[in-house]
Amino acid sequence: MSAPKPAPPGVPEPDRVWFRFMRLHQRMLLQMTARIRAFGLSIPQFDLLSTLTEQEGISQSELAERLYVTKGNVSGLVDRLVQAGLVERRAIAGDRRSYAMHLTPEGRRLAEAGIAAQRDFVASTLGKLNPGDLAELDRLVLLWRDLARAVDAE
């Protein structure tokens, strides 16, 4: 296997772009974590609550799939949110082993507050890009995502 060719002058090395992207991701995650913590939530708790604003009544298994985590992780997270009065489990007719997940009024309030904080953060960052740059960034992120999916499929 030969060494990769150096990038032409003025073209960044893919590794450099990767590290910039990962650092940006970490910075944004830290900033959002602080905003979400102001509501007394962790990022995983907020993710679960905001997912339920999109579709209530899904099972813990469906939540795990949507959140890209294990069923065990979701189970513990749901347990804590039920104890906090933010989520409730409701029996599913005809299925004694599964429960439908629903937000309580307080869970919905916190989820909506977190979503508003997230929208404000996005508006203060990505929202400041001009429309052409935003469209180009979106195109590149989707292209990168598709390349990553292709590697997964191999």
TrEMBL record:
UniProt keyword list: DNA-binding, Transcription, Transcription regulation
GO BP term (any one): response to stress
Coiled-coil features, chain-numbered ranges: none
MF (Gene Ontology): DNA binding; DNA-binding transcription factor activity
Domain of life: Bacteria
Pfam entry (one): MarR_2
Domain HTH marR-type: 14-149
Name of the protein in its database record: DNA-binding transcriptional regulator, MarR family
